Amino acid sequence: MEDLNIVVRERLEKAAELERQDVALYPNGYGAPDKIKGLIAKAGGKSAEELEADETAFVVAGRVLSVRSFGKSIFMHICDSDSKIQVYVQKNQIGEQSYALARRLDIGDIIRVGGRLFRTKTDELTLLVKELVLLTKNLRPLPEKFHGLKDIELRYRQRYVDLMVNEQVRETFRKRARIISTMRRFFAERDFLEVETPMMHAIAGGAAAKPFKTHHNALDMDLYLRIAPELYLKRLLVGGFERVFELNRNFRNEGVSTQHNPEFTMVEFYQAYATYEDLMGLTEELFALLCGEVNEGKTSLEYQGDVIELRAPWARHTFLESLTAIGNVPREAVESLEGAVSYARSLGIGIERFEGHGKLLTKIFDLVVEPRLVQPTFIYQYPLEVSPLSRKTQGAPGFVDRFELFIAGREMANAFSELNDPRDQRERFERQIAAFEAGDEEAHQMDEDYIRALEYGMPPAAGEGIGIDRLVMLFTDSPSIRDVILFPHMRPEKKGL
Questions:
Q1: What is the rounded CA–CA span in Å between residue 87 and residue 85?
Q2: What is the DSSP string of 483-494?
């Protein structure tokens, strides 16, 4: 830390000296008409002789990544948002004053340079500088070894530095943007209407999660940050919009892990006159399209050493079938609450007094089945106890028409045929209230207005939510959710960092 303070102090002194020489450290009004990527595209294939005969001038701006001085000449590499290029500064080309400035540049400074292209003796495409302007003076040194595991927290905390020096990180977020834009196009082409719903709710609903709470002073009422947009989106089905989707931010007051961030992005979509089985096919289409978009047209990808094949059809198992066939759970645990309690305890699973057989089996599933679902797998017909908003499965008491999609050992999507019977919905909410009073902080609250909306009549429909962050993790081979969120939540940093 002392070394850092010394360097910062030296750079502040250098900045002050430049200002005394009437050099503007942060001037405005200088454009950069060319992009480095464009230069490379136009001239990258030309020979040294062809470039020598071409007097076309270019003007680019970028951050200095390296500086090498040789007497009366300087080689630098600069980068913009897409690419980097070498620039060559000679005293007899830009004059004594500009050359003196070039010699005072530091790694991390942002400059504007203009000139023509040529090739060096090593055949590297290079810009011969005819003009140079300092646009932004850097006061903190860029780290020399920023990619080591010991600096991983610093990478997340100071993402702006991570992006400066790590092209792979920039590419991850470019892919994230492509995934989201492709997803928007996918739904628009299928007549889904993109909508926006509130992010502050009077009632925390639409999912089983502990919310963040705030207070609105003017209305003098408590509000909750959205845990899911589901109930508002289904109100739109009641209102007559038959296909809707929302790319949304959700907030859940839960732990932080490689798969969880308290603030995260999802897409939720709802389709009238469809069932959860229809959404299985739609999901297969969507993932195949996204894979081709970010993975050069392929139907497979590699994630953390496993080759994931996304070509349809994907495996499908009922919830109960997966417990025995995939998780090797004893039948007595599946068939009775007593057996489930005994087996859960043998696995070290904590048991709460408000948990019934269905919820306990779900905990067992999370521990012994989910990690084994590496290839895309739909698990369907979940217990009613953990699905307060899903339609009951005909002929299977205690279960609902719901699926979850698992890839690479983690949940990627959650969908179900929607419950549209207001009488049944009220009973489900009442049971959730009882669970909350028994100690379940994630139980769903009563929402009288949502029940009123159902009483006006919601068409039979199916809906689904897909976690965008986990999706991007999959398509960029990222091991942690923090790798795909630009500014993940962190504990407060220690003083002096």
A1: 6
A2: GSSSS---PPPP
* pLDDT tens per residue, range 237-248: 999 999 999 999
How far is Cα 49 from Cα 255, in angstroms, rounded to an integer?
Answer: 61
Q: What is the dihedral of CA 23, 29, 33, 34, to 10 degrees?
A: 40
Q: Report how far residue 338's alpha carbon sits from residue 321's, in angstroms, rounded to the nearest whole number.
A: 19
Domains 2-142 and 163-327+369-483 share a fold: no
Contacts of 194 (CB under 8 A, 6+ apart): 184, 187, 188, 244, 245, 246, 247
Q: Output the CATH code of domain 2-142.
A: 2.40.50.140
Residue 433, number of CB atoms within 10 A of its CB: 15
Rounded Cα distance between 373 and 443, Å, is 27
By residue count, the chain amounts to: 497
User: What's the whole-number mean pLDDT along residues 63-74?
Assistant: 92
The three-state DSSP-derived secondary structure of 357-378 is HHHHHHHHHHHHCHHHCCCCEE
Nearest-Å Rg of the Cα atoms of the chain is: 29
3-state secondary structure of 78: strand
**Residue 245: both structure tokens together:** 């989707």
Residue-wise pLDDT tens digits, 278-291: 999 999 999 999 99
**CB hemisphere CA count around 364 (13 angstroms):** 31
Q: Which two tokens stand for residue 236?
A: 């739109």
Task: Report the C-alpha dihedral over residues 184, 402, 329, 310, rounded to 10 degrees.
Answer: -30
CATH topology of domain 163-327+369-483: BirA Bifunctional Protein; domain 2 (3.30.930)
**DSSP 8-state secondary structure symbol assigned to residue 152:** H
Token pair 């000679």 is found at 90
The amino acid at 231: L
Peptide bond into 313 cis (omega under 30): yes
pLDDT digits 0-9 by tens, 436-469: 888 887 777 889 999 999 999 999 999 999 999 9
Alpha-carbon distances, residue 426 vs 202, 365, 392, 462 (angstroms): 18, 28, 14, 19
Q: What pTM was computed for the model?
A: 0.90
- List the domain boundaries for the chain: 2-142, 163-327+369-483
Rounded to whole angstroms, what are the CA distances from 16 to 12, 64, 109, 310, 467?
6, 20, 15, 58, 49
Distance between CA atoms of 416 and 395, rounded to whole angstroms?
17
Ordered DSSP codes for 252-317: ------SS--SEEEEEEEEEET--HHHHHHHHHHHHHHHHHHHTTT-SEEEETTEEEE-PSPPEEE
